[in-house]
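Provenance

Sequences were taken from public entries as deposited. Structures were produced by running a predictor on each sequence independently, with no templates supplied. The record for Outer membrane transport energization protein ExbD from Duganella sacchari is shown for reference.
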Amino acid sequence: MAFTTGRDSSDVVSEINITPLVDVMLVLLVTFILTAPLLNNAVRINLPKTSTTTPNNPSKTVTVSIDGSNKIFIDKREVEPASLEPELRQLVDQNPELALSLQADQGVPYRAVAKVIANIQRSGVSKLSVLTEPGG
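Predicted structure for Outer membrane transport energization protein ExbD:
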């Protein structure tokens, strides 16, 4: 598409008018700014409230604990994070039906708890209970 100036009809102006391009980009930017928060919170879930339960056989349950300073314990014995998976694998080798309970201090970051759960899963534990306190 050629544009002409008022001076000479044979001169062709080959400059792009960027004003419509800027207008379109601003409209898209505003659209994305308005819709982005809605996409993150699209699914709203009300988690069920549960009553207190007890394990079927508490004598054979192993408890993994994470305290407020991110220290990991297996039945009140402190273990290093790197040695958690091998020790759990050894317990699973001794008892394939091992039931494990996980308890973590409420101040522990989710990342630390997720890493411990991943170690538990990789070690072969198939029965995992997450312990909480009853109430709100």
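The chain has three helices and five strands.
The mean pLDDT is 79.
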